[in-house]
Amino acid sequence: MSALLICLMLLIFAIDTFSPLDMAIAVMYVVVVLISSSIWGRRGVLQATASCIGLTLLSYVLTHSEVFSAAASGRLLVGLLAICVTCVLVLRGQAATNALLAREEALRRSEAFLAGTQRISKTGSFSFKTPSGEMCWSDEAARIYGYPLDLKPTMELVLAHTAPEDRGIVQASMEQSLRGESEVEVRHRLLMPDGELKYVHVLARPRHTNDGEIEYLGALTDVTAAVLAEQALHRSQVQLAHATRVTMLGELAASIAHEVNQPLAAISTNGEACLRWLNRPQPELDEARASVTSILEASARATGVIKRIRALARRSEPQQAELDLKAVAEESVDLVRRELNNNHVALMLGLTPNLPPVLGDRVQLQQVFINLLMNAIQAMAACPPGQAVLTVQTYLNADGALQVTVSDSGPGIPPAAVPRLFEAFYSTKEDGMGMGLPICRSIIENHGGRIWAKPSAPDSPVAGATILFTLPVHDSN
Question: What class of enzyme is it (predicted)?
Fold first, then answer.
């Protein structure tokens, strides 16, 4: 092709130089410049243009060097101008074409990056127009929904692979988008034809198009792996909390036996008294009736203690219910009362009555109370007689949350230990496992609250430490 172009230039030169035609033959070099743009790049076009200009000037010199001709000079200028203008236009066209090709390549690369990123992150994109219902989605979105990549998406296809229990949620979000309301965010499950269950998170925001419609642009993320990991973590936390409760019950064996033996002893004593009242020549029925009433009360108390112990020992999923925090605190104190007596700890209760209820699991909250109480009792083991004081308070704080404060008069928490106090496997006790307080934190945070430690001030005359936690008030309305 290059050789043919060179031959064409020489042909035009020969015609311009040796033919008797009295016209601007040099204008034909424009064809050469145009053809060169399809063969060579910028440098080749400039070289071809320079060659055409050189041949034009050479032809003029050979044919008009002896006699000046204004007409010939005019034709020379016309030819040179045509060659130069054509060169400029060709170069601009090449630059524009190259820029367009670069943009197309960048777009293809961007699309490839986007498709690869979506595949890796399991996040697809989609759009939905309202009220027409026109919809499109990316390849990854089609993969997540389990459809062929070339299948045109519709809301019917989305609902077809939505888990039956979640279709109401998805339909409600569709109705919201049809009304053109604010952004749509929904989490639901997909039930694949092979029985696979997927968890997805959909987020879309509206924008107004030029044709007056509202188009929702959104992202669809497959969060199955995260949900399964969260469920596995939850099961592990439940198992760990259960194991910790069983260990705690072992430490409270003496207190539990005492709590059960007290009503049993009362039952035995009242039973013997009842028999004496009935065996008299003239049975004292009123006294016997009172003894039986006491037996029933003691039996109910023993039954309550056993139920609480069984609940603490049982491994089960958390059961959310409205709870009176004061009652939960009192029940927890009853289970450690023997430990308080054996360690000569004075207990001061400041339990505000008629507090708003909290929504939570009774067993888990009792576990938090008992753990904090036992930690405080053990911290005061070295206190001189009469100086071990344990204070438990429940009240409504300034933020409108229920707050619990457990304070002791022990040696306190070293300042360096405070930031790590709720870390797993960290303990300030020589024989501690370091799991009690982390589990307490997990329980409180799962209930929507927070827990923290407040050591005594360095210049405070009173030693000891305070653990506080808050729980949100449950609004039943």
Answer: transferase
Q: Which among 307, 273, 311, 265 has a CA at the least distance from the CA of 290?
A: 273
State phi, psi for 323 to the nearest 5 degrees: -130, 145
CA–CA dist 453, 419 (Å, integer): 9
Coil vs helix vs strand at 432: coil
Domains and CATH numbers, the chain: 1-113 (no CATH), 119-227 (3.30.450.20), 320-476 (3.30.565.10)
Minimal CA–CA distance to 245: which of 231, 261, 259, 256? Answer: 256
- pLDDT, tens only, 323-351: 999 998 988 888 788 788 888 889 999 99
- DSSP 8-state code for residue 415: G
DSSP assignment of 233-289, as one string? Answer: HHHHHHHHHHHHHHHHHHHTHHHHHHHHHHHHHHHHHHHHHHHHHHHSSS--HHHHH
| pLDDT at residue 385 in the model | 76
Nearest 5°: CA angle at 474, between 473 and 476?
145
| Model confidence pLDDT, tens digit, residues 175-228 | 777 676 677 888 889 998 888 899 999 888 887 776 667 888 888 888 888 888
Q: 98 near 45, Cβ under 8 Å?
A: no
State the pTM of this model. 0.48
The CA distance from 466 to 399, in Å, is: 19
Percent of the chain having pLDDT more than 90? 5
Angle between helices 224-251 and 362-379 (to 10 degrees): 50
Going by pLDDT thresholds of 50, 70 and 90, the confidence category of residue 36 is: confident
Contact predicate 40/48, CB 8 Å? yes
Residue 134 has which token pair? 């026109």
The amino acid present at 379, given as its one-letter code, is A
Cα–Cα distances (Å) from 395 to 198, 335, 360, 403, 449, in that order, read 44, 22, 17, 5, 14
How would you classify residue 39: left for phi > 0, otherwise alpha for psi between -120 and 50, otherwise beta? alpha
Q: What are the φ/ψ torsions at residue 455 (nearest 5 degrees)?
A: -70, 160
Q: Alpha-carbon dihedral of residues 317, 320, 324, 330, nearest 10 degrees? A: 0
Average pLDDT, integer, range 281-297: 79
Is the pLDDT assigned to residue 409 strictly greater than 80? yes
